[in-house]
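User: My advisor, Dr. K., asked me to get a structural model of this assembly before our group meeting. I'm new to this, so sorry if the format is off. These are the inputs:
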Amino acid sequence: MTTLTATAYVSLDGVVQAPGTPSEDPRDGFDLGGWLYPYHDAVMAEYTADWFSRADAFLLGRRTYEIFAGRWPSVGGSDPIAGPLNSLPKYVASRTLTRSSWQGTVFLRGDVATAVAELKAEPGRELQVHGSGELLRTLTAAGLVDEYRLWVLPVVLGRGHRLFPPGTPARTLWLAEHRVTGKGVSVQVYRTV
Amino acid sequence: MGKLTVTAFLTLDGVVRGPGVIDREMRAALARWRRRAAAFLQVKGVSDECPDRGGLPRHVVTGDLIAEVRALKARYDGELQLHSTGSLPAALEDLVEEYRLLVFPAVLGEGHRLFPDGALPLALCPLSTVATSTGVVIHEYAAAGAPTLGAMA
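Assistant: The format is fine. Below is the predicted structure of the whole assembly, which you can bring to the meeting.
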């Protein structure tokens, strides 16, 4: 069995849309992109590097995949994020993409939840989702996420796509780890089992 | 000049709920905040409950929310505390100086969120964040104006 982990930047009111830049995801008129910007620091970089080092493969939605594909292939393998991302398999859920020049990319066919359940049944360490809000909502609804690694940022947005929208199946989680970065980001790791 | 503080028990999806089982660390935090209260504020549909007041005044706002809260802030030196049981209207959010949020390790998928769609975008300055033995994360924040947006390098 492989553990499915999901890492996401989340506002205090649960929004996950467009943390990185103002232009990355303006769907539904979202005009508050880039809200992660003031909070990045060395602790965040250290945690991110540790989490990436545990991956055996990645599972990404189309938007996050395209952002990663535009950035990481040109970064050297000694980088703690580019190294794993460039060398390990990347499974991509997309209704539109069928080919990519980024080595190790595999497009999932058919029903995403079924395909991911099959990937989880293979032996391995972690199959990691990063960002990928829309895919993550599908995986959450299907009960496929084993661990949520949430960067809870001290900001309220009031609009935007959310990690757990209305209709998400009710469930109790277990807080496995908690830490606060120097810039006040609350690192909250929850397990579902 | 008093300040308005909001305390709420939340799920991970931001839904306001009852306190449920209160563990030792939660009890300590609630007692510490309680000692700073000068008066309690209730707003219909936002805060339908009031904790044990211990003889302190309670004000129920029924008319002009902004004007009444401003008048109460001018009247007290300590904290005007609101224990939220529903969504904060944006007009009220704009008047809050501090938030005390107790986040349970659970997702509900339905219910009133403290910060509903249409909440004012707001940066917060973390004053304290701790996790309790039962997995509740207790955040204390001061309101800090509009969020800063930018592009990650």
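One thing worth pointing out at the meeting: Chain A is about 25% helix and 25% strand.

User: Perfect, thanks a lot.
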